[in-house]
Amino acid sequence: VKRVGMLTGGGDAPGLNGVIRAVTMKCIEDYGHEVVGLKRGWKSLLDPEQDTVMPLGVEDVRYILQEGGTILGSSRTNPYKKEGDPEKVVKQLEEFGVDALVAIGGDDTLGVAKRLHDDFGTQVIGCPKTIDNDLSATDTTFGYDTAVSIATDAIDKLRTTAKSHERVVVVEVMGRHAGWITWGAGLASAANVTLIPEVEPDLDQIASIFEKRAKSGEKWGLVAVSEGVTLSEEFMTQNAETDEFGHVRLGGIAETLAKEIESRTGIETRHVVLGHLQRGGTPTAYDRILSTRYGLRAAEAVNNGEWGKMVALRGNEIVTVDLSEATDETKTVPNDLYKAAETFFG
Ligand code: F6P
After folding, report:
1. Binding site, residues?
2. Cβ neighbours of residue 139 under 8 Å, at least 6 residues apart?
3. What amino acid positions are annotated as catalytic residues?
4. Where is this site: Important for catalytic activity and substrate specificity (predicted)?
5. ipTM of the predicted structure?
6. Among 82, 158, 179, 187, which is most exposed with the fewest C-beta within 10 angstroms?
7. Residues 197-207: pLDDT tens digits?
């Protein structure tokens, strides 16, 4: 019988509790292992607190599938940022009596898991998580479907007010350097323009879309824009508020675009930043199912001793792949998919 530890790292994503529930129930009921949660991600192993080790039984997790967030808490602590910290993590795992670890997180958390496995032989299984959908090792991750649904719903709601006041509303969507959430929400909500970091926006094209709409009697519109979108260098030097690297300051792209659209078209324009709303609330049915399937397979991987592997979705199968694949590259929106969204511009 093993003592299985489990932690969640990085930004929370709806579906994390689904993984925790499935790992716990399968490990206990099918394999007879003991399961403990390690609260607050890798921080739990560097800086333990009174409540760090959270014993998990079947009754603790039975009804958490519908809950957003993570009952284990999270942090962005990365032990590989400081010399000596990886050794501390390994020692702490030993002290907690944890002999198998399930690490649930994005490329940062899984990168740590991989290095602990390679450097110290830590018996670890990874489970991918991100609302951004930017992990190349898996077709998709839980959290993404929920984030797209929330952003779609928000844009649908903004349509009625945009129409009533004859305004353009620019909606800023999360996703860091990948446009997946914006692409999905832009398509699903029939936004008039969808802008992603993978493609530099054409301001003339955007202005002419709204001018044309106004001429045909529709003096309103909706733009879905990813937080990671940057405008041309020429525009930036002339207009936008930039950070020390000359990039649009984070969170500022919707505001910058709104001002630009208003000044070019004369149509009153507002902006909305959806922010962390996109990570909140209850996971969609899809994310509940995917996270449960990931958790079941992760428990199986623990039982089989598939150390250094992570669970992944390939087609309709849950498989295990090398943890190194988790950090391979950022999966971005391919051009042909973006073109599909462009078909509906206007
Ligand atoms: O990676 C998930 C994500 O929500 C990104 O889309 C966003 O850029 C970032 O995390 C926000 O991070 P934080 O929650 O630390 O503000």
Report:
1. 11, 107, 130-132, 167, 174-176, 227, 270, 276-279
2. 312, 313, 314, 315
3. 132
4. 108
5. 0.98
6. 82
7. 999 999 999 99
